[in-house]
Design brief:
Blueprint (H helix, E strand, L loop, with lengths): L13 H7 L9 E7 L6 E4 L2 E7 L1 H13 L4 E6 L19 H12 L4 E6 L12 E3 L2 E3 H18 L3 E4 L6 H11 L6 E8 L6 H7 L19 H13 L3 E5 L5 H10 L4 E5 L1 H12 L5 H14 L4 E4 L2 H9 L1
Parallel strand pairs: 1-3, 1-4, 1-12, 4-5, 5-8, 8-9, 9-10, 10-11, 11-12
Antiparallel strand pairs: 2-3, 6-7
The chain binds ligand PBG.
Length: about 325
């Protein structure tokens, strides 16, 4: 044969492959989600997320320092609210001395360089486990947005660098931006969960925070996974309303959406490799059916290749260690 082009030339050795690799993961690509609980010295494994833990503030701070030393630049905080503090209006979410606010302060104190992102939604604080205020059977939009805006200001006050509304209410990005401006928090960023789908892959997360919806589902606010154009509509609106980063969630079943979002906006795009995606890899690896490290790197690379500038993933630490060698 006389071939003009032999594609295998550029695949023939690890060195050549490394030279022409198009997508390179870096620890700075990752956002490490952290689950925080009350107490000291507490580290509880989440049953549906083997190898992932809820930790008290003191141990969380140690973990954050370790993540920083591995080159990870941001953490995304979630707290497990005590049952007796939950109500319908998310009152505890606004407590200046609440677990979230104390966690932000402790982390910024111990590791000032780390970009602290905070979850903004009512579900961990809600007796109903919904992301907004419930009236009858309805999750009401506008009163919820008011609380989310106050919650964001409260996180900014505690020192959060970026607030991350994950609730999917309408108009919350502009409301949060206005509230931050009005309160003088002109350096606080907003990472909008813009295209967040109603997904079964959030199951293990709801175990982690004991935040499963008490009735119904989240389909009146989270997106229908059948839809693609609607994601672009959501994203463009959030950009107009002042989002600094837009997110697609989950990640691996939505790579087409990530790509399309990436091609539609000029701001960074993040993707959330969610709890169920973590659990699937873990479960298969435990059965000996998948090589865990390889599955992690292939999954995260595919998410970055699809267009994600940032990836929130429970594998952040492990992947950073693998990358660093
Ligand atoms: C809730 C929230 C959820 C996740 C992040 N914020 C769950 C939900 O919408 O029910 C899911 C994260 C994951 O599954 O890893 N506001």
């Amino acid at each position: 044969m006389h071939l003009i082009r032999r594609n295998r030339i550029l695949r023939q050795s690890p060195a050549i492959r490394a030279m022409v690799a198009e997508t390179i993961l870096r620890p700075a690509d990752f956002i490490a989600p952290l689950f925080i609980t009350e107490g000291t010295g507490i580290k509880e494994e989440i049953s549906s997320m083997q190898g992932y833990y809820r930790m008290s503030i003191d141990l969380t701070v140690q973990e954050v320092k370790e993540l920083w030393s591995l080159g990870i630049k941001s953490v995304l905080l979630f707290i497990k609210c005590k049952d007796e503090l939950k109500d319908n209006k998310g009152t505890e979410a606004l407590n200046p001395n609440g677990l979230m606010q104390r966690s932000i302060r402790a982390i910024k104190n111990a590791c000032p360089g780390m970009v602290v992102m905070t979850d903004v939604a009512l579900d961990p604080f809600s007796t109903y486990g919904h992301d907004g205020i419930v009236e009858g059977e309805e999750i009401v939009n506008d009163p919820t947005v008011e609380v989310l805006a106050k919650m964001s200001v409260s996180h900014a006050e505690a020192g959060a660098d970026i607030v991350a509304p994950s609730d999917m209410m309408d108009g919350r990005i502009i409301a949060i931006r206005e509230a931050l401006e009005t309160s003088g928090y002109t350096k606080t960023g907003i990472m909008a969960y813009s295209a967040k789908y109603a997904s079964c892959f959030y199951g293990p997360f709801r175990d982690a925070l004991d935040s499963a919806p008490g009735f119904g589902d989240k389909k009146t606010y989270q997106m229908d996974y059948a839809n693609r154009r609607e994601a672009i509509k959501e994203v463009l609106m959030d950009v107009e309303e002042g989002a600094d980063i837009v997110m697609v969630k989950p990640a691996m079943a939505y790579l087409d959406i990530i790509r399309e979002v990436k091609d539609s906006v000029e701001i960074p795009v993040s993707a959330y490799h969610v709890s169920g995606e973590y659990a699937m890899i873990k479960a298969a690896a435990n059965m000996g059916w998948l090589d865990e490290n390889k599955a992690i790197m292939e999954s995260l690379t595919s998410i970055k290749r699809s267009g994600a500038d940032l990836i929130a993933t429970y594998f952040a630490k492990k992947a950073a260690m693998l990358i660093n060698g």
